[in-house]
Model the fold of this input.
Amino acid sequence: MKIKTTRKITVQDTARILRGVRKQLKLTQVIVSKKMGISQGSLSKMETAKAEPSAIQWMEFCRTTGIPTDALFRDDFNIGALKPINEKGRKAAGKRL
Done:
């Protein structure tokens, strides 16, 4: 399946997506960075566009948040449709990823 996108993704877009997804799922930087295997400071830099995540870090972020890796780059991706992760650590499926 080919992903169709009409926009160019910038470092600022990446930062907005990382922070927006994490906040929408009601996760802290400490929790996400620990599960990703990076420091909280590294995640903070990515969320403020001071650093760009590697492909492996993107994959770990997706694994940690339960979001399909291609969803983040779709034109119809909607951060607001994501459901918070419940106390058992499983994300309720969003209707529109």
